[in-house]
């Protein structure tokens, strides 16, 4: 796809050059769609003429401006298994197009982007644009924890099945569309492939830098706020595409334990500091036991909320009340430990100093913290991946029943290149039809783990239309 606005001069040379490159070097079927964003010059007529002259070119007209709006409209209506776009000025070297889409065609990645900020990229552009681009990506890294290097490079691709789930969640219709799409994809755990590109900036670009930068910063604030409040339904995108080793059941390896420990320690350290400050404040007008109970209560509510979101990754408001109620039980256990420690200190010394009280409370809180983590992990925020594991239905037959031909006689399977069939071995259809079969359910990955022994399975392709009839593979 090529989004355009008032590009009557550059559109035809761009399309002709792109079409010639694809015809000469691209091994897959392709289609070029020119998406006109409410142009007021002769751009629509140029696009229609190109579509009439070149079979692989299509023309699409929108009555409203916005690159994001055009991307959503064209990509949502496309039947191509891989969707890509590039700017009409062809600033990116076209030799990067095949490396861009190859990881998507193979199924290895979900999205792919060109990066002008990679060390191996060769970029020619002015100091002003270079400074703005790097500053913007630094803002994304600092505010939205983005790990991709170049959000605004006009050279991106996405698998259609991913786009169908991701695009409805993207609100922006302008230049921030790319950034929002990438941030949501990354937060959902999708795989983003980066391709170093050679880039020569177009000095005649019609992009308004100041307005674009202002709109982008507004978008960063909106997306950051939505992520902080958990209002985005990212569970729709939580790695539904392809196999992910993090979704496999591994014995003796608790999932996400290292990350949870780090998050819990950070939250615990801040909570302990908050608790001690509260205790010192309450202690100025109440007894030690009352100050301890009040400080622990307030800090426990904050601790449960922070661990829920940051340590165990629970988003949204669902189950928040139940989690806080369970957190109160954990709080009660911590209260018993700390109050017992204060009582023991009081019995040992009739008038302990404030520093001694704090030292005893810190030791008691360390013990309570270890217990709190174990209870949070096992009871309050348990890992429920086992309950969400999808099952696949497969027909199988033990090897003792004889050879299995999955879809009929092998001699009837033609070679897609037009050669002779793969095998002309005679086939007894009667004995095949009478062979007993059984249907069962198994968890994805069991066959790879060899827990099924000798068996033959018949599985339907995940994306049966994602193939090129010209490609024999």
UniProtKB/TrEMBL annotation:
Membrane topology note: Single-pass membrane protein; Multi-pass membrane protein
Matches recorded under InterPro entries: DPG_synthase, Glyco_trans_2-like, GtrA_DPMS_TM, Nucleotide-diphossugar_trans
Domain annotation Glycosyltransferase 2-like: ranges: 2-166
Catalyzed chemical reaction(s): a di-trans,poly-cis-dolichyl phosphate + UDP-alpha-D-glucose = a di-trans,poly-cis-dolichyl beta-D-glucosyl phosphate + UDP
Enzyme Commission number(s): 2.4.1.117
Stated family: Belongs to the glycosyltransferase 2 family.
Protein name (Swiss-Prot/TrEMBL): dolichyl-phosphate beta-glucosyltransferase
Species this protein is from: Streptomyces siamensis
Source organism phylogeny: Bacteria, Bacillati, Actinomycetota, Actinomycetes, Kitasatosporales
